[in-house]
Amino acid sequence: MVSNKTVLFDSIPNHEPVDSLKIVTQQFDLDRQLAPGEAILKVEMLSLDPYMRSRMRDPSIETYVPPFTLGEPIDNGGVVIVLKSNNAHFKVDRKYYAGFTLPFSEYALVTEASNAFYTDITDAELPNETLIGACGLPGKTAYYSYKQLVRGKAGEKIFISAASGGIGQMLCQLCKMDGLKVLAAVGSDEKVDYCEKTLGVDRAFNYKTSDTRKELAAFGCDIFYDNVGGKMLEDVLDQINVYGRVICCGQIATYNSGAEAYGIKNTFQIVAKRLSFQGFITFELIPQKPFHESKYNTIEEEFMATIPSMIKEGKLDVKNHVYNGIEATSQAFLDLLRGDKHGKTVIQL
Amino acid sequence: MVSNKTVLFDSIPNHEPVDSLKIVTQQFDLDRQLAPGEAILKVEMLSLDPYMRSRMRDPSIETYVPPFTLGEPIDNGGVVIVLKSNNAHFKVDRKYYAGFTLPFSEYALVTEASNAFYTDITDAELPNETLIGACGLPGKTAYYSYKQLVRGKAGEKIFISAASGGIGQMLCQLCKMDGLKVLAAVGSDEKVDYCEKTLGVDRAFNYKTSDTRKELAAFGCDIFYDNVGGKMLEDVLDQINVYGRVICCGQIATYNSGAEAYGIKNTFQIVAKRLSFQGFITFELIPQKPFHESKYNTIEEEFMATIPSMIKEGKLDVKNHVYNGIEATSQAFLDLLRGDKHGKTVIQL
Ligand SMILES: NC(=O)c1ccc[n+]([C@@H]2O[C@H](COP(=O)([O-])OP(=O)(O)OC[C@H]3O[C@@H](n4cnc5c(N)ncnc54)[C@H](OP(=O)(O)O)[C@@H]3O)[C@@H](O)[C@H]2O)c1
Ligand SMILES: NC(=O)c1ccc[n+]([C@@H]2O[C@H](COP(=O)([O-])OP(=O)(O)OC[C@H]3O[C@@H](n4cnc5c(N)ncnc54)[C@H](OP(=O)(O)O)[C@@H]3O)[C@@H](O)[C@H]2O)c1
What we know:
The first copy, chain A, has helices spanning 52-55, 128-132, 137-150, 166-177, 189-199, 212-219, 230-239, 269-272, 282-285, 299-312, 329-338; strands spanning 2-9, 21-28, 39-47, 75-85, 95-103, 107-110, 118-120, 157-160, 181-186, 203-206, 223-226, 245-248, 276-279, 320-324, 344-348. By secondary structure, chain A is an alpha/beta fold. The two termini of chain A are 19 Å apart.
């Protein structure tokens, strides 16, 4: 028996999930007899992503992700080492990336139902946090949506919110490679510096101290890649160019606000400016063929064949915020929703 | 000299345009010498359309339509007879349909600048109100946007707001011809009857006395054709199916509300349900080739070759609300914005 710290879903939050996660120490039997299909994993790193806020809800509300279960561990993506296995998919001592379903605990027992979510990354030659971030959900979200939906052309002006986050940082760089003009909104001066000096955007501003409308009016905007929603989306509708396109990735500004969400009053601009909006969910883009000419069969194949090597060659910058110890989970998640972190959020166990 | 009653733009409204239009009686010289390009028109009928509310604004605000000028006549579409002409485009005693730019007056003097807006309809064999409505702006708006943007498939469920209005009545019928299932929202029980019995929609309801969310939940909704915006749009976002499409034609519920417009809080549904939105302006669709297979070069050609004859053959119903006398303009426009009329609004002179 070893002790196994686990993060349980403890209460449904109305606003900020301040008391929603509870750390408990359970016992885990490393010597248990494994049934066919079972494997024991040691968790090395866990990923925190904004969409987990939607899972902290009353289970009677239906939406695009299943709810967390009260009293049960929360789960998400991460990196694990296989300690014991009675499942051909999981090889002992090898390292796996889990896209989803990994419980927030130090050790985990999985069955064959998990196979589809775990990929062997032993030979990936990249740090865990990069495999979770730039090569994981946020990196893929940026890449797939950029190639399949944004389809930017050189010279087009794109406004990116939450631009230094996991998705934003990758997207800014993809846009610059294709010659787009990038305006980036971020929540601190340090992030402004990062976007301009490291990511190479044309202009970044701190939306807490600068006027978003004035920035948009001065820079121009053909495309809005929206990670934030709320008031910022309203500002964009008044400033975006005629025929503007809005790619709706997320609305992090609204996740904690419940019934008091900011109400957007100027949706008539969609008619007056002939705007289009497109919402998407990353995993639905995975199996799609690349929209552009490509030698790859799916957009995921193309991503795997190009992005990790570009990162290794230093052609793409990657910024992660690493918290230490599973106990940091609750605070790290609050920081993520508040913007009090810089880059992709991961927990090092 | 004859007296020439004229409707002037008298004050910029904050909410309902109750005092914005003023009738004055001016003098008009029917015997004047016409300069080259001039013609004298007698106005037979005038069209009132919701977008005219956007023109009653502070001219410093830029949007998709030019503002009315304080102290000058308002203008829009209508039907005229040519009394005198020194312009080859305008032939004496013939009847013309004006799409735009016809001043609200009993007589009008036009120059060559007007030629592009006037079409000879002497041989059209349809009543003026039908030429203005079903064969004019609202009919074309419904047809062009249905064929180019809605692109409905048999069995798809479409929700249409302001369904008995100029656009709605045509759209309901086009959808039924293609086998779509139509849910119609209207503002009175009489209009409910009209939609179900005359237009043949699958279900209509009075949104003032029935719960829009419950109606949508019971009927289902793949496509929302939005003429109204505001609270009804918010209701739809919560009820529309995954991958739903919103065709943004207008937001009449917001035109009078100014800064107190209803704020839409649930735009995150665009992401969660992977929705798309498309705004459009009718005149930009005119020159487009039909999206579907068609022997016509433009969608306008196709419309003119099919819709007027279908109306003559009784295959399409047309409902207009005819006001008498130019003095009725102000009240008729208030009625239009309040929904206190049934069908396309026109003024018979
Ligand atoms: N559609 C999909 O399939 C999909 C997939 C993954 C993620 N997403 C969405 O994409 C968005 C970004 O995700 P991510 O992984 O890049 O997140 P992330 O790295 O955690 O970045 C989130 C950032 O959002 C910013 N933020 C937080 N509250 C804000 C507010 N009230 N106003 C403005 N900015 C705020 C903060 O940065 P600042 O300091 O700059 O404010 C924060 O660092 C989220 O909305 C997420 O839900 C969608
Ligand atoms: N995009 C374009 O190019 C274009 C072109 C033309 C028109 N439009 C827009 O299309 C829409 C319909 O135009 P139309 O010519 O068909 O107008 P219409 O025949 O005058 O119909 C307007 C109808 O809207 C309904 N309405 C008014 N206030 C409402 C409210 N607060 N909530 C719900 N319904 C309300 C009323 O019917 P009920 O009794 O049923 O409520 C009214 O009869 C308008 O928004 C207009 O601005 C757009």
